[in-house]
Hints:
Blueprint: E1 7-11, E2 21-26, H1 31-36, E3 39-42, E4 48-53, H2 62-71, E5 83-90, E6 96-102, E7 108-113, H3 119-134, H4 138-149, H5 156-163, E8 178-184, H6 189-200, E9 204-215, E10 219-228, E11 239-241, H7 248-254, H8 257-273, E12 277-279, E13 284-290, E14 293-301, E15 310-313, H9 321-324, H10 329-341, E16 346-348, E17 351-355, H11 362-382
Parallel strand pairs: 7-8, 8-9
Antiparallel strand pairs: 1-2, 3-4, 4-9, 5-6, 5-11, 6-7, 9-10, 12-13, 13-14, 14-15, 15-17, 16-17
Amino acid sequence: MAGLYPAVASLIHRQRGAASVELCGLDNGCSARKENMRVFGVQSDGQFSEYVQTPFQVDHEEAILEGWLESNPDGIVEDGSILIIGRQVVTNFGGFIDLLGLDREGDVVVVELKRDRTPRDTIAQSLEYASFAERLDTTQLEGILMSYLNDDPLSLAEHHREYFNLGSDEAVAFNKDQRIVIVGQGVTPEIRQTASFLRSKDIRVTCVEFTFFEANGETRLLSQEIVVGTESGKPKHVASGSLPVVTEDAFLASADENGKAVFARILELAKAKTMPIHWGVKGFSLNVDVDGTPVAVCFAFPPDSVHKQTLRTTLRYSGGVEKKSAVPEDQIQSLWKQAEATGLFVPAGRDLKCQITRPLTETEIDSLVDWCESVEKAVKEHGLKQ
């Protein structure tokens, strides 16, 4: 998906020998210019193939646009990317926030699709959702993220830090401010005017307009223009829709050869010791079952995840050894030192990570498996925290 920014835009699409497509000269507030704009693909033989502007609703539901935004969060706001932490998040009044995210500074971003509501309803609902989001604390935001990623013991702070590649000296305070993003195929003058007024009162509102093009019923382009935004008590319950979980085959296929060798052994251990594997959107957790309650031992992530290809301990994580089991502190420290003694783990937030960027020897892989067995033994010996 290419971004269409004010004044000048360039869309590049290559398919079956097609060359680049250039669009230019869009005024910030003039939709008529867009309606009259013609877009052509230049074929390998030099002939033009016209892209026809198509109403999005003809062949696509709003949910598809929501999914595209979810998968392509770069450029939704004027100053960077968004980390999506929830989809269809339920508010305290029973509404559903289309997408909930965080920006680099940790501020909450409410992304709302305009649909066919009146301008007044669109603005009112967006403000209602922002007022709900303002009341969410870090624990609730982390809970939304866990539900969204199907990942129980997950650190919001570390996930955010790794997504935005923050330095160790960059501190983030979550939800100190809120942002509203209104997305639609046509952002009306009423919405633009009201959004600009709210921005003048220091309420951060961005309006994004999409235009959909098709050629020959096959090739598709989606342009994006930020039309407003480039100028200068807790809820009792929060919930989010979930992404589909990965399968074992898909996970192993996403790992490189270095990762496959390690993860296959971890999965073999799980089967041999009857240790539950909980699959998330990208990776999995290895668990100890204590009277029906899972206690996480470690997490495994593939190369295309925020965490890159890593094996992570859960000694200090919520849902892990310290938080859920009765393993004493001195033994947790001993497990920590045992992990460090492998020479494969380094500190990562509250825990340790083994980043798999090279082939590990059989001895090194054995040491990882042995460590997992040591954690399993300790948890089974001491049981759950009372």
